[in-house]
């Protein structure tokens, strides 16, 4: 049996970061609304560089969706994350600092509790099947999931198997296991 929950972008609340460098909008998490999540997916508006928050026992995957990108220094090693829709994985318990390459940006964040949940993140531009527990987020254009129409930044949480059709855009597909 397939279940589908549509999550509209218009219903998300922006939460400011502790360091004042941006805001985040949670797309979905489990358990929902819990401070101690097993997994969490969000979109962040990054206005300035600075240190990342520390998340002990959490694995992170970050992807630039708008803007020129950033240089992340993770435990002293710098990596340039500038290619749109190219995920970069790192440990949430690593000391991480961000330097913006060309002004504000929007990034897509996936965080999973190590040992409890893992995530696979891919970006699709065509029709595909999604299986298992999957969160699809429309980053550009529009999409349809099992007959439900999704606009820009809308999402669908699916458990089971569903057809995803992306219309002239890009969707993030996060498979959780």
Question: Which residues sit in consecutive blocks of at least 5 with pLDDT less than 50?
Answer: none
- What Rg, in angstroms, do the CA atoms define? 16 Å
**What summary fits the major beta sheet?**
6 strands, antiparallel
Helical proportion, percent range: under 10%
Describe this structure in words.
There is one protein chain. By secondary structure, the protein is mostly beta strands. The protein folds into 2 domains: 101 residues, Jelly Rolls, CATH 2.60.120; 58 residues. It contains no helices and 15 strands. The strands form 3 sheets. A 6-stranded antiparallel beta sheet has the order 2-3-4-11-6-9, with no helix packed on it. Strands 1, 12, 13, 14 and 15 form a 5-stranded antiparallel beta sheet that branches. Strands 5-10-7-8 form a 4-stranded antiparallel beta sheet, with no helix packed on it. Strand 13 and strand 14 form a beta hairpin. The mean pLDDT is 94.
């Amino acid at each position: 049996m397939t279940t589908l929950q549509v999550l509209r972008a218009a219903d998300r609340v922006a939460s400011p970061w502790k360091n004042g460098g941006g805001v985040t909008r949670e797309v979905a998490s489990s358990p929902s609304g819990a401070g101690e999540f097993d997994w969490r997916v969000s979109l962040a508006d990054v206005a300035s560089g600075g240190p990342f928050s520390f998340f002990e026992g959490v694995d992170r995957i970050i992807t630039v969706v708008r803007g020129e990108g950033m240089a992340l220094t993770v435990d002293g090693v710098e990596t340039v994350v500038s290619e749109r829709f190219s995920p970069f994985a790192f440990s949430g318990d690593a000391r991480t600092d961000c330097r913006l390459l060309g002004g504000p940006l929007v990034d897509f964040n996936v965080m999973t509790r190590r040992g409890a949940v893992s995530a696979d993140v891919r970006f699709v531009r065509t029709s595909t099947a999604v299986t298992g527990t999957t969160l699809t987020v429309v980053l550009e254009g529009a999409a349809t999931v099992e007959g439900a129409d999704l606009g820009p930044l809308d999402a669908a949480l699916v458990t089971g198997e569903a057809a995803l059709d992306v219309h002239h855009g890009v969707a993030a597909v996060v498979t959780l296991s």
